[in-house]
């Protein structure tokens, strides 16, 4: 890896094809594509998107995912699937968060809050 690429990666910039993108730009693009796939006026999804970042902040990632999976039904499953996509994770996010060591759990939590915030922004703009 060239020095310029290493420096860019340390600042949160990633290569996408031949262009540089920040992590926030990548999250924004993925969140937009996920939220735009929902129908306008999807109030359940919009409400979940609004409350999820605060839920993670207050309760933790593993507990928040478990709550959504238990209480929100198909809307919750779709939301967790979208969150997983925006985070760039693969597999079951709930299981990954429960099995993660402390450093990975903190990384997953930060990534989840950042990704959920983008989903929330687009939900407010596109679904209302």
Descriptive report:
With 128 residues, the protein is mainly α. The chain contains seven helices and two strands. It has helices at residues 3-10, 23-36, 43-59, 61-71, 73-87, 93-99, 102-126, and strands at 13-16, 19-22. Strands 1-2 form a two-stranded antiparallel sheet. The longest helix has 25 residues, at 102-126. The termini are far apart.
Return the structural class: mainly alpha
Annotated CATH architecture = Orthogonal Bundle
Question: What is the residue-averaged pLDDT?
Answer: 90
Helix content: over 70%
In CATH terms, what is the fold-level topology? Peroxidase, domain 1
| Biggest sheet, spatial arrangement of strands | 1-2
Compute the gyration radius: what is it?
15 Å
Summarize this entry quickly.
By secondary structure, the protein is mainly alpha-helical. The chain has helices spanning 3-10, 23-36, 43-59, 61-71, 73-87, 93-99, 102-126; strands spanning 13-16, 19-22. A hairpin with a 2-residue loop joins β1 and β2 (19-22).
